[in-house]
Amino acid sequence: MNVLVINSGSSSIKYQIFNMSNNNVLASGVIERIGESQSSLKHRWLKPDDEYEELSLTQEIVDHKEGFQWITNVSEETGLTKQLKELFGIGHRVVHGGEVFHKPTFINDEVIEAIRKMVPLAPLHNPANLVAIEAALKNYPDVPQVAVFDTAFHQGMPPYAFHYAVPYELYNDYHVRRYGFHGTSHQFVSRQAAIHLGRPLNELNMITLHLGNGASAAAVRGGISVDTSMGLTPLEGLIMGTRCGDIDPSLPFYIAQRSGMSLNDIDRMLNKESGLKGICGANDMREIIGRAKENDALAALSLDMFCYRIKKYIGAYFAVLGDIDAAVFTGGIGENAALVRQKCCEGLERLGLSIDAGKNDSPSREVREINQNAAPVKVLVIPTNEELEIAVQTVETILAVK
Ligand code: ADP
User: Fold this and answer.
1) Which residue has the higher pLDDT, 119 or 124?
2) pLDDT (0 to 100) of residue 9
3) Domain 199-386 CATH superfamily
4) Is 284 in the pocket of ligand 1 (CB under 6 A)?
């Protein structure tokens, strides 16, 4: 059973083909610069001898429909004709499902319309996702397709957690509330944590920390996200590579008054020029840690701020959940930066989090525990795999309607 997973941007399509019987990636790749004269394709595929091979091509690809045709052609040329013919389903990552979508959903005309209605909430992402869905439907009309939403996992938040204390009409008129993102990753690692702990997910409380260039925390009770750090947009919450996370909401008005910057300029600054980059000029955690170790004061400050914010969320979500069985680190930083994990958990022994320095410092690609053996809370490092989670949810959704 093979599943194609699509993650599309306005000028790009990322794809992976999974063999769901063993979770092997049969092929993966990315098309970039769609609509330009020199579109590029990177394609990696599994050969019959179980080795991967890669190729890079350039060609003019005018739109996403041509992009899918290119993927089909290159897959056929690299011996994947049968695998594509036998596709069980296609799973699309869709950024915003608003309040309509609580779970992955079989795509039909109504669902496409509903995703379109959500465009004001995700003006950059949902249109790009829709273009890819419509192109994929044209290219693979006989294959069932499923939308998997970044927001869906957090739809379990209770109203007192998702409302902002602003006039209630804004919720009715403009759907202003907290939604949360990275849901597929939080869901994937919470499922993996339950498997690792050998306990049913619905009996476990955990705090999941997705720390990549974008970063968010979630409080997961019994497999349901009951709070998360991102909000109406991904700007809220943790400090990120280039996003500020939580700030005083008056800050933009103050800056506008003082500097004359426009709302658009401030929006751009808070999303693209803030966070780690805003403090020390870099958003690559490897560089920041390297510079901090060489006593670069601003790199050290940004690292301290990043970890301090995470620690505050761990404390808050501990209070939300009452008690926790596990804290899970994932994402490029969460999986690889031992120093970040150590600093986030420092001083939280009273909450049951005690890291074993030796385990924390041993790199691995596997799911692993880094807590001290006797610690009441498991601290886990779990490599995320959003594409695999999308593939799994695609299969579950198609089987449920069959
Ligand atoms: P994205 O949100 O773009 O998917 P990733 O999850 O790939 O981001 O995470 C990117 C971040 O992970 C970058 O800040 C990068 O520096 C950091 N990272 C990757 N490898 C390491 C490492 N070995 N040590 C520290 N940070 C790392």
Assistant:
1) 119
2) 86
3) ATPase, nucleotide binding domain (3.30.420.40)
4) yes
